[in-house]
UniProtKB/TrEMBL annotation:
Domain of life: Bacteria
SMART domains from the UniProt entry: AAA
Species per Swiss-Prot/TrEMBL record: Marinobacter manganoxydans MnI7-9
Record keywords, A-Z: ATP-binding, Nucleotide-binding, Transport
SUPFAM superfamilies: P-loop containing nucleoside triphosphate hydrolases
Name of the protein this chain belongs to: ABC transporter related protein
InterPro entries associated with the record: AAA+_ATPase, ABC_transporter-like_ATP-bd, ABC_transpr_LolD-like, MacB-like_ATP-bd, P-loop_NTPase
Residue ranges of every copy of the ABC transporter domain listed in the record: 19-238
One cellular component (GO) term of this entry: plasma membrane
GO molecular function, one term: transmembrane transporter activity
Family matches, as Pfam families: ABC_tran (PF00005)
Length: 238
C-alpha cells in the first residue's frame, strides 16, 4: 500500500502529537497478502481524511489504530503511548480514556435509551467522566441538542430512532468526555449528500471545540474538502 499526503495547508492548533503510526503491517491469515500501511502523524486537534477503494484496508487500519487488532509489524503511538505494548486490559482502558470510535454500523446498545448510549464511555472511564461539565448527563444532553436530537427522543430506546439520528448518537458517544482522538469508519454511507455534509460539519465543529483529533475513513473522496489533510490508501500488498 502506498500513501499520498495532499494539502497540509491548515496548521494544527497544537504541536502536540495525537497519533504517530510507523511501519505498520498486518496479515489476516498466512495465505492472504500482507497489508502495509502508510506512516501517519496526526497533531492534536487536526482532522485527517483517509480514503481508498473497497478492500484497501481502511477498516483493518482503524482496528489496528484502536488497538482491537495486533499488527504484524510497526508501532501505533496515541498521545505518546505505544498502545500495542500495553496488556489487553490496559489497552481497553486506554481506549476508553482517550479514544472515541464511530463504527460503520454505529454499534449502539439496542436495549438502552439514547442518553444512556451517549453516557456509556463515562461509565468505563473516570477520566472521561471527570472531563464532563457539570455532570455526565448534562454533557450528554448538550451534545444531543448540538447534534439536533430532539429532547423528547433522549429517553427513547435507540432502535426507535432513524438511521441518521443513530449516527449522530454514535458521534455524541464518541465526543463525550473530550477524548484526544476520534476514529470514524465511514459512518456516513447510509446518508444522502446533504445529511452527510451536515453530519460531518457538526462532528468536526464539536471535535474542534474540544481540541479532539479526528481520523475519518471513507471511500468517498468528495468528503475530503471538510478536512485539514488527506491520505490515500491504494491497496498495494506485499
Ligand atoms: N475478518 C477478516 N478475515 C479475513 N480477511 C479480512 C477480514 N476483514 C477484512 N479482510 C480482508 O482484508 C482486506 C482489507 O479489508 P478492509 O475491510 O480493511 O478494507 P476496507 O478498505 O475497509 O473495505 P470497505 O471499503 O469495503 O469497507 C480485504 O482483502 C479483506 O478481504
Amino acid at each position: 500500500m502506498t500513501s499520498k499526503t495532499d494539502s497540509a495547508s491548515n496548521s494544527s492548533r497544537s504541536t502536540e502529537t495525537a497519533m504517530e503510526v510507523s511501519g505498520l503491517g498486518f496479515s489476516w491469515d498466512p495465505v492472504q497478502p500482507r497489508l502495509s500501511f502508510p506512516d501517519i502523524i496526526l497533531k492534536r486537534g487536526e482532522h485527517l481524511f483517509l480514503h481508498g477503494p473497497s478492500g484497501s484496508g481502511k477498516s483493518t487500519l482503524l482496528s489496528l489504530l484502536a488497538g482491537m487488532l495486533r499488527p504484524a509489524s510497526g508501532t501505533v503511538r496515541v498521545l505518546g503511548t505505544d498502545i500495542h505494548r500495553l496488556g489487553a486490559g490496559a489497552r481497553d482502558q486506554f481506549r476508553a480514556d482517550h479514544m472515541g470510535v464511530i463504527f460503520q454500523q454505529f454499534n449502539l446498545v439496542p436495549y438502552l435509551s439514547t442518553r444512556a448510549n451517549v453516557t456509556l464511555p463515562c461509565g468505563l472511564s473516570e477520566l472521561r467522566r471527570e472531563r464532563t461539565e457539570p455532570t455526565v448527563e448534562d454533557e450528554a444532553e448538550r451534545l444531543l441538542a448540538a447534534l439536533s436530537i430532539p429532547a423528547d427522543h433522549w429517553q427513547r430506546k435507540v432502535t426507535r430512532l432513524s438511521i441518521g439520528q443513530q449516527q449522530r448518537i454514535a458521534a455524541a458517544r464518541a465526543l463525550i468526555g473530550a477524548p484526544g482522538l476520534i476514529l470514524a469508519d465511514e459512518p456516513t454511507s447510509a446518508l444522502d449528500a446533504d445529511n452527510r455534509d451536515r453530519f460531518l460539519e457538526l462532528l468536526l465543529t464539536l471535535a474542534h471545540r474540544h481540541n479532539t483529533s479526528v481520523l475519518f475513513v471513507s471511500h468517498d473522496q468528495s468528503l475530503a474538502r471538510h478536512f485539514d489533510n488527506q491520505l490515500e490508501l491504494q491497496g498495494d500488498r506485499t
